[in-house]
Write a structure and sequence with these properties.
Layout lengths: L2 E5 L5 H11 L9 H6 L3 E8 L20 H11 L13 E11 L2 E9 L8 H15 L4 E7 L3 H9 L3 E6 L10 E5 L6 H18 L13
Parallel strand pairs: 4-5
Antiparallel strand pairs: 1-2, 2-3, 3-4, 5-7, 6-7
């Protein structure tokens, strides 16, 4: 199945929220992606599966449903959508991952990269990282930064591969278990050494996964 990258749209938010809950189940409060779409500092991308028979969006239910109301709410929602109360429209494609960043002055701060569990280990997370760095370059950022859990060695390995190095440590950064975060940063993403390495990594990724990646249908900048 082919997939492609594009800007996140408001109709993507229900699917993005579901991926967020899979990837960051203990994060509280949950991110408000509708608000982020209106944030002039934020940029959000999605990876889409090119499937014309995408599933209809699900009704959003709070993370903690201790009352047992969720099944009844969903049943009411499905019934009432046929009486003039339409649900949010589907994006038309299955969202399989997303990435977000804030661009502040010359810094692109990558805030999230997440992939549906059933699509992991297929190069999609790496493609999201490539795409968000490309967008940062297009938006004239000089460096890219991020935080990552000290225990997340797999993510750290990917970031090291793309030129991120540890520049600091944020103690007790994560609210769920007070885990520390590594602060990582690139050198100048427009420098010749970074660009040479980055372009080679892009070619390697395209050679390995390129037959499954389609060109985006719209620009990833705005």
């Amino acid at each position: 199945m082919a997939y492609y990258m594009r800007n996140m749209r408001k109709e993507d938010v229900p699917q993005v929220n579901k991926i967020d809950r899979e990837a960051f189940p203990t994060q509280w409060p949950p991110p408000d992606y509708r608000r982020e779409l209106q944030n002039p500092l934020a940029r959000l991308l999605v990876a889409c599966e090119d499937n014309p028979e995408a599933a209809e969006p699900e009704m959003e239910i709070p993370r903690e449903d201790i009352s047992g109301l969720a099944p009844r709410i969903k049943r009411w929602w499905r019934q009432n959508r046929f009486f003039g109360k339409e649900p949010p429209q589907s994006s038309g494609h299955c969202i399989i991952g997303f990435a977000s960043m804030w661009v502040m002055a010359d810094e692109a701060r990558i805030t999230n990269i997440a992939v549906r569990q059933s699509y992991q280990r297929q190069g999609i997370g790496e493609l999201l990282l490539i795409s968000i760095i490309d967008l940062a370059i297009e938006l004239k950022a000089s460096i890219a930064t991020l935080e990552v859990r000290v225990s997340n060695l797999l993510a750290q390995s990917l970031y090291h591969k793309y030129g991120f190095t540890q520049v600091g440590l944020r103690r007790n950064y994560y609210t769920d278990n007070r885990e520390d975060a590594l602060l990582m940063s690139t050198e100048s993403i427009t420098s010749a050494p970074f660009q040479a390495h980055f372009q080679q990594l892009k070619r390697d990724h395209a050679q390995k996964y390129g037959e499954r990646i389609k060109s985006p249908t719209d620009s990833m900048s705005r």
